[in-house]
Write a structure and sequence with these properties.
By secondary structure, the protein is α/β, with parallel strands linked by helices. It has helices at 68-71, 74-77, 92-99, 146-153, 183-197, 212-222, 245-250, 255-259, 265-272, 280-292, 295-306, 309-319, 342-350, 368-371, 373-383; strands at residues 3-5, 24-29, 32-39, 42-50, 107-112, 115-122, 131-135, 158-162, 203-207, 227-233, 329-334, 356-361. The chain has an 8-stranded mixed β-sheet, with helices on both faces. Strands 1-4-3-2 form a 4-stranded antiparallel β-sheet, with no helix packed on it. The protein starts with a strand and ends with a helix.
C-alpha cells in the first residue's frame, strides 16, 4: 500500500537539538493513520492516508513505520531501534549523549585562520621517513584512516589526517558567511592548514573518495613541487567515472535539502560501496556529525552543488597523464567497490604507465582503509 504524508515528514534524525525526542503513538482507522506525539506538554499530530487509487491486495502489509529509513539499516538497528513502547527506551537525545565522545582517536582541534580544523596525528615530527597527509572523501571523515595512520607511523612516518571544513568534527560554516564550499576555497584553506601544521615539503599524499577527495587530487596537480609521492585509494579518476546516486540526489532542488539531513547518510553510503556492514560502534562515529546538527548536511549539499564532477574527473585524468605528471603514484584499489569499477583504475593507470602503479586489494570495497586497513598499510609501506 502506498502512503502519502499530508504534512512535513516526521524525522528525528534531522533535529539539530540534543533534547530528547518526544514520545509518540500511532493510531489507524480505515485508510487514515495518525501519528501523535508530545513535546513540552503539548500534543502534536501528523496524518497519513492511503493512496485512494490503490486497492489492498488482501495480504497483510507491515505497519507503517515513520522511522523505517533508520531502523531498516542493519548497522543502525542496534543504535536507533524504537521498541513497541518507545517511552521506556533510549531516544535520539540519549543516543547523542552515548556517542558524542566517540571517534576522536589521535585527534585535536587546530585553529587555522577563521576556522577550526579537527586533525588526527600519529608519529613524531622527528620521524625519519617524512610526513604523510591523508585526505578523506565525501560524505565521510578522517576517522576512516585511524587504523592505517596508527600502523604506518610505526614504520617511521609522521602522519596527519584532517577533517575537511564542513565535514567530520571540523567547523561547518554557513554558506555565504566566509566560506562557500568551492574548490578554490577548499584549496586555499588546506594550504593554510599545511602551514599551521608545519608539514615539511615535499610530503607524501594519500587521497580517497568523491568530491573533497577529488579536490585533494586537483590540489596536488596545482602543487606538484610539494608532493614527493602520491597514493590514491578508490576515487573517480576518469571522465567516465560514474557518479553515485547520493550526489545526484543532492543536486536536485528541494529533494537535495531533504537528502542532506538524513543522519545515517554517511554510513549507508559506506555500506552501499562495500561488501560489509559497519559495526554499530563505527557507524556511530560516521553518523554523529549529521545527527548532532544540520550543519554537515548543508555543507555537503553546498559542496555537491558547487562541484562540476565530470569536469573535475576529466581534469584529474588529463593532469596525471604521461608528460604532465612525473612523480610516483600508487593506485591501491578495492576491487569490491560498488561505485567505481576496477576498469576506472586500469584506464587511469594506462594513461601514465611509467609513473602509476596499480595494486588491487581483494576483499575491500570503496573505502579500503576502512574495509581492510592492514592491506592498505602493506601497500603503502612498500610504495613509500
Amino acid at each position: 500500500m502506498a502512503w502519502t504524508l499530508l504534512s512535513p515528514y516526521l524525522n528525528p534524525a534531522t533535529s539539530s537539538s540534543s533534547s530528547s525526542f518526544p514520545n509518540y503513538s500511532i493510531s489507524k482507522k480505515n485508510n487514515i493513520q495518525t501519528i501523535n506525539w508530545w513535546r513540552n506538554g503539548r500534543r502534536r499530530e501528523r496524518t497519513v492516508i492511503a493512496n485512494a487509487s490503490e486497492e489492498k491486495d488482501g495480504k497483510d502489509s507491515p505497519a507503517f513505520n515513520p522511522f523505517g529509513f533508520v531502523t531498516d539499516n542493519p548497522s543502525s538497528k542496534g543504535a536507533i531501534q524504537l521498541p513497541e513502547s518507545p517511552a521506556e527506551d533510549g531516544n535520539v537525545g540519549q543516543m547523542l549523549y552515548r556517542i558524542e565522545d566517540k571517534g576522536k582517536e589521535y585527534g585535536s582541534y587546530i585553529k587555522c585562520g577563521k576556522f577550526r580544523w579537527f586533525v588526527r596525528e600519529t608519529g613524531s615530527p622527528e620521524s625519519r621517513r617524512g610526513d604523510i597527509v591523508f585526505l578523506h572523501g565525501a560524505p565521510t571523515q578522517s576517522y576512516s584512516y585511524r587504523v592505517v595512520m596508527s600502523q604506518i607511523a610505526d614504520f617511521g612516518f609522521h602522519c596527519f589526517a584532517p577533517d575537511w571544513i564542513g565535514f567530520g568534527f571540523s567547523d561547518k560554516p554557513q554558506p555565504g558567511y566566509g566560506f562557500n564550499y568551492t574548490e578554490k576555497e577548499f584549496h586555499e584553506e588546506f594550504d593554510k592548514l599545511l602551514g599551521v601544521l608545519g608539514v615539511k615539503y615535499p610530503f607524501s599524499l594519500v587521497v580517497q573518495g568523491f568530491l573533497v577527495g577529488s579536490y585533494g587530487l586537483t590540489w596536488a596537480l596545482k602543487n606538484p613541487s610539494k608532493i614527493s609521492k602520491l597514493a590514491i585509494l578508490n576515487s573517480p579518476l576518469t571522465a567516465s567515472s560514474p557518479l553515485p546516486g547520493l550526489f545526484q540526489q543532492l543536486r536536485i532542488p528541494l529533494f537535495g535539502e531533504f537528502t542532506c539531513q538524513n543522519a545515517i547518510m554517511a554510513e549507508r553510503f559506506i555500506e552501499a560501496g562495500s561488501a560489509y556492514v559497519l559495526k554499530v560502534e563505527k557507524a556511530d562515529v560516521y553518523r554523529l556529525p549529521y545527527l548532532a546538527s544540520s550543519g554537515p548536511g548543508f555543507a555537503l549539499l553546498e559542496s555537491a552543488r558547487k562541484a562540476n564532477f565530470k569536469e573535475i574527473s576529466s581534469q584529474i585524468a588529463a593532469g596525471f597523464a604521461t608528460g604532465r605528471w612525473d612523480k610516483p603514484v600508487l593506485v591501491a584499489w578495492g576491487i569490491s567497490d560498488k561505485y567505481l569499477n576496477q576498469s576506472v583504475a586500469e584506464e587511469f593507470q594506462k594513461g601514465n604507465p611509467d609513473n602509476i602503479k596499480l595494486k588491487l586489494i581483494e576483499g575491500a570495497g570503496h573505502m579500503p582503509q576502512e574495509d581492510w586497513p592492514e592491506k592498505v598499510v602493506d601497500a603503502l609501506r612498500v610504495f613509500l
